[in-house]
Amino acid sequence: MKKVEALVRRESNVMRLALAKWDPFKPLCLIRRQRQPHSLSLNKATMNAPPPQVAQVAPVEADAGGRYAFNPTLKWDPQVEAYLSQAYGGPHFWRISSALTRPSCYSSLRVNTLKSSTPHVNAKLLNLLSQQQQESSFISHDPALPDVLYVSGTGPHHVPYHHHPAHPLKEVIVSRKCAEAVLRGAQIYVPGVMACSAHVEKGDKVAVSVAIEKPTETGGWTLGITRGTVLHGIPSDVRYEDRHGLYIGEGVASMSRTGIFRAKEGIAVEMTNRVYRLPSFNDVLEGEIFLQNLPSIVTARVLDPQPGERILDMCAAPGGKTTAIAILMKDKGEVIALDRSHNKVMDILKLADEMEIKCIKAYKLDALKSVNSNMSIPDENEVMLEEQSVIVDEECYDLTNLQKEEKGRYLSKAVMRKRMRQLRNGPGKNNSKGGKVANSKGFAPNSFDHVLLDAPCSALGLRPRLFAAEETIESLRRHGTYQRRMFDRAVQLVRPGGVIVYSTCTINPGENEALVRYALDTYEFLTLVPQSPKIGGPGIVGSYRIDETHTEEWLKESEAELVQRFDPVSDTDTIGFFIAKFMVGMKREA
Ligand SMILES: C[S@@+](CC[C@H](N)C(=O)[O-])C[C@H]1O[C@@H](n2cnc3c(N)ncnc32)[C@H](O)[C@@H]1O
C-alpha cells in the first residue's frame, strides 16, 4: 500500500510539473483516485515551532482514532440495509457506506470549449492555485475526456484543535447540510450554526462538529438540539457523546456568539483547517468552466449528441448536463431542457446565458406531461411561441424591433401586447431576461433524436452524506415507480433509430438495474448498447425477493457490462452513479 501511495505521489508531482508547461498535443495520463497521505505529516521544525498566532494555545492531546478524528458512520433504515447488503454483499456495502461519508478527493472541471480551451483554463487555474497558496493541489487531465481538468484535494487530515490549557475548547455545532457543504469546501454561514460555546468572540478559534439526527421513541428522527444552544465543552453538554468522530475542522469565528444567532446571513465561521482540503472555485472563471462530477460529464458524452440534432433533457435543472450536451453539439441544433420547477428553469437559463450557449430552450413542464399526441412535428413552435415571448432582452424595443427580432415568425396581437407590456415594465425579479420562464404544452411523439432522462432519484450516491436513514424500502420503491413512468414518456418522445440515456445518482439497484429490466421487458424494440467512454464498472446481476409474491429483477449476465455503475469505493473516487444507454428500433405499442 505504501508503495502505491509513494508511486501516486511521485506521479502526481510529474503531472503537476508537466501541466505547468502543458503541451496540448501531448496528452497526459488519467487521474484516477489520487490516494493522499491519510494524515498531515508534520516535520520536526513545524512541531517544535508553533506558528506565532497560536503561541498562547496548545493543541488538544492527539487522539488518533478518538473523539476528534473524523470517523462518521452512516445510519440506514434496517430494511434498506438488508436490501443493499444483499445487492453488494455485506462487507462491500459497508465500504460504500463509509466512502459516502467522505467527499471525493478531487474536483472535476468541465471546460466550456465554446468560450475557452482546456490549455487556456489550465494556465488560469495554475495561476489561481498559486494565488490561493494551494501549491499542493495539482491539475491533471485525461485524453479520453479532452474538455475536463481534475484538481486534486487531500484528506482526511488530522486537525490539531487548539485551546488554552486552562479553558475548554471553544466549539460550534453545525447542521448536517452545512457540514456536508463544509466538507466540500464551503465556509460556515449563519443559518448553518446550531450551537456555540458561551463567550465566543469574533476572531476566536473554534472546533467545528456536526449534529446528526437521532432516533426518537416513536420511530422518527430528531436533531435533539435547538438553534442557539450554549455549549460549555463539558460532558454534560447536549450531544457531547454523539459528537465523537464528527469533528470536521477548525475555524475562526467571524462574529461573536450573539452576532451569529442574531444575524440573518453572512459567514459565521471561516474555516482555517479542514479534515478534507478541496480547492475552491466559487465565482472563478465564470462561464468558462463548470464544476461537475465525473459521472455527469460522462453521461453527456455517452448520449453522443451531434451538431444539428434535436435533443430532449427531461429533468434538466440546474443544467449541468444540458450545457455539456449543447457544447458537444457546438451550439448547433436544439436542446430542449425541461424541469417542473420554475426557479430551477431560471437556473438553467442563467447558466446557459453565462456560458453563452444559444441552442438551449428551457421550459417549465412536468416531464410526465411532456407527450402531446395532438401535435405533429414541428408544430410545437405554435405552442411555445407565446411563452417564448417573455424571454427578451432588457433593451428598449419598439414594435418594429420586436417584429425584426422574430424574423418572420408569426406573432399574434396578444403576444405582441404581452411583449410590449413586459418591455415597458422591465425585467422581473428573478431574471434579467424577463423573470419568467416559458411553459410548454408538450412535444410530439417521436420528435427527438436523443432523450436524456437524468431521473429524480433517492440520491443515495451523493457524497459526502452524513445521514441516510430517511429513505425506507417503501420510499425507494416509490422512486422506482416514478422513474418507470418517466421512462415511458422518454420512449414515446424519441424517434425510431434514436437513443435514450437513463442515469441516476443513487446506489439503489431498484432505481438502476431494475429500471433497465423494466425497459427491456416492456419495450422489445429497445436494445441496451455499449457506452463510450466507459469509466464505471459493471451493473448488478440477479434479483431480490421482496416478499412471497414479489421479486425485483436486476440484470442478466450478458447485460452487466453494457451499463456503467460508478462505485464510490472504486479508484475513480466518484459519487455513486448509474448510466444505461438504449437504442430505439422500430416501435410497437408496449
Ligand atoms: C437529478 S436532478 C437533474 C440534474 C440535471 N440533469 C443536471 O445534470 O444538472 C433531477 C431534476 O428533476 C426535476 N424533476 C423532478 N420531477 C420532475 C418532473 N416530473 N418533470 C420535470 N422535472 C422533474 C427536479 O426538479 C430536479 O431538478
UniProtKB/TrEMBL annotation:
GO terms for molecular function: RNA binding; RNA methyltransferase activity. The active site is at residue 505. InterPro entries: MeTrfase_RsmB-F_NOP2_cat, MeTrfase_RsmB-F_NOP2_dom, PUA-like_sf, PUA_sf, RCMT, SAM-dependent_MTases_sf. Pfam families: Methyltr_RsmB-F (PF01189). CDD domains: PUA_NSun6-like. S-adenosyl-L-methionine binds at residues 315-321, 339, 366, 454. Residues 219-585 form the SAM-dependent MTase RsmB/NOP-type domain. GO terms for biological process: RNA methylation. Keywords: Methyltransferase, RNA-binding, S-adenosyl-L-methionine, Transferase. Belongs to the class I-like SAM-binding methyltransferase superfamily. RsmB/NOP family. This is SAM-dependent MTase RsmB/NOP-type domain-containing protein. It comes from Rhynchospora tenuis. The lineage of its organism: Eukaryota, Viridiplantae, Streptophyta, Embryophyta, Tracheophyta.
